[in-house]
Write a structure and sequence with these properties.
The protein is of the alpha+beta class. It has 2 domains: 78 residues, Ribosomal protein S16 (S16 Ribosomal Protein, Chain: A), CATH 3.30.1320; 37 residues. Strands 4-3-2-1-5 form a 5-stranded mixed sheet. Strand 1 and strand 2 form a beta hairpin. The longest helix is centred in the last third of the chain and has 33 residues.
């Protein structure tokens, strides 16, 4: 049985509240779970102690038994100091999308055209004053 430590959503529409649960990975997100390990309330301030509450003994017990935490739970456990921080590398995340690249190219072309136009009229009035 593949075990997961993950979030199960509760609360009403636009007012989420999550339970941190140990469950079989084949069960639905909000479905049957084996044990409730804590709570997570994303509506509270990030520095609030009540935002994430976990029973660390039970979490460690499930990790020792081979339960795999989801990405979000892994970050919470890293912040709590239970797991070592994993290096994440997503170099494509910082790159702008196609539309943004096209807009940047258009902006650069307009700036270059404006610079050329600004340089060209400065020479023409000198010729007119000579007449």
């Amino acid at each position: 049985m593949a075990m997961k430590i993950r979030l199960a959503r509760g609360g009403s529409k636009k007012r989420p509240h999550y339970s941190i649960v140990a469950t079989d990975s084949r069960m639905p997100r909000d479905g049957r779970f084996i044990e409730k390990l804590g709570t997570y309330n994303p509506l509270l301030a990030k520095d609030s102690e009540d935002r994430v509450k976990m029973d660390m003994e039970r979490v460690q017990h499930w990790l020792d038994k081979g339960a795999q935490p989801t990405d979000r739970i892994q970050r919470m456990l890293e912040a709590a100091g239970v797991l070592t921080k994993k290096t994440r590398s997503n170099p494509n995340k910082a790159k702008p999308g196609k539309k943004a690249e096209e807009r940047a190219e258009e902006k650069a072309a307009k700036a270059a055209a404006a610079a050329e136009a600004a340089a060209a009229p400065a020479e023409e009035p000198a010729e007119e004053s000579a007449e």
